[in-house]
Design goal:
single chain; alpha/beta; nine-stranded mixed β-sheet; 9 strands
């Protein structure tokens, strides 16, 4: 972890949050990072700024100066907390770290979250992957289709990306690990709990599993974070398979609709006539697949969108 990364953790993380301490939210950090970049200032240098520097060089008002001072005052506590969790196998990466997922930087640019907490080897994000998303409530046919389709993807050399939830997510990840293939999970709840589960420990030790979260280590389930997971799953993937979606509601539906618009990966959808949501996603442009699909991703014809402007920003700014 470099000095700029340490500074981002101090300014943006929700570790050691006391009274009147308000970390920068992702959108706020992006705006501040651009101001720093435009003035030739690094995040680490910002930590040593006097009130006069903040006012004169960055045009901070009194409230923002007070906010910055309170954030910097917790530096020692955060350093201790990060070390404590590293001893548990939970680490922190920021947009200033080389290990930050390159696929997210390329496709999301400045929309990337400034911080991820993670368990496992971050270099797994360099693997080519296919995303799997779908309902928490599944039947035997759903599980069977997921497992067979994951096998086809793995046989083609793709790892798997999921949201780590019950249902389709868990079935896809378990199938990939069973096939000795990589699985990346972008989860919405506590890494502290997840890091203690034996199957997770075993898969991490075998270098097959990486679990990431934007939530701090001991955070519980948050619906808002859960709805955001597909924003990371789809960009991490060459293609995203929708196994089972409700119609016009839920995280799977909203994530698929957003991906169809942004084209951050190919949206593929199980052509199952029983599921109205699936049929409507196909009607809106998702590629229909069935049990005969051979896990072919036509990269030259996908129209996948990368954020070309991201190259204009330094590592801490995007």
């Amino acid at each position: 972890m470099n000095n700029d990364s340490k500074a981002i953790i101090i300014l943006c993380s929700y570790l050691c949050v006391g009274e009147n301490v308000f970390p920068y939210e992702p959108a706020e950090w992006t705006k501040l990072a651009e101001r720093l970049l435009n003035n030739g200032i690094t995040p680490f240098e910002l930590l040593s700024f006097s009130n006069s520097d903040l006012k004169n060089r960055l045009n901070f008002g009194s409230d923002e100066i007070e906010r910055m001072n309170r954030l910097v005052e917790r530096s020692g506590s955060i350093t201790f907390e990060v070390e404590r969790y590293e001893n548990m196998g939970i680490h922190v990466m920021t947009r200033a770290d080389k290990c930050y997922p390159k696929a997210l930087k390329n496709k999301l640019g400045k929309s990337c979250p400034p911080i991820f907490y993670y368990v496992g080897n971050p270099s797994l994000t360099e693997a080519r992957c296919i995303g799997f998303v779908g309902s928490r409530s599944i039947g035997a046919d759903d599980a069977s289709f997921t497992e067979k389709t994951v096998r086809k993807c793995n046989d083609k050399g793709y790892g798997i990306v999921s949201g780590g939830a019950k249902g389709i997510d868990s079935a896809a990840c378990a199938a990939a690990i069973h096939n000795d293939s990589v699985c990346i999970e972008y989860v919405s709840d506590s890494l502290e709990k997840k890091a203690k589960e034996k199957p997770v420990i075993d898969a991490v030790l075998e270098n097959l599993l990486l679990v990431l979260s934007v939530s701090k280590h001991d955070a519980g389930f948050r619906a808002g974070i859960a709805m955001m997971r597909n924003k990371y799953i789809c960009p991490q993937s060459d293609g995203t398979v929708v196994v089972k979606s409700d119609y016009n509601k839920g995280g799977t539906w909203s994530g698929a609709i957003e991906n169809l618009k942004s084209k951050r990966s190919i949206t593929l959808c199980w052509n199952n006539p029983k599921y109205i949501g699936n049929a409507e996603l196909i009607n809106r442009g998702a590629v229909p697949i069935d049990e005969e699909w051979e896990a072919d991703i036509y990269e030259n014809n996908t129209g996948i969108t990368a954020n070309a402007a991201s190259e204009q920003f330094s590592l801490f700014a995007i």
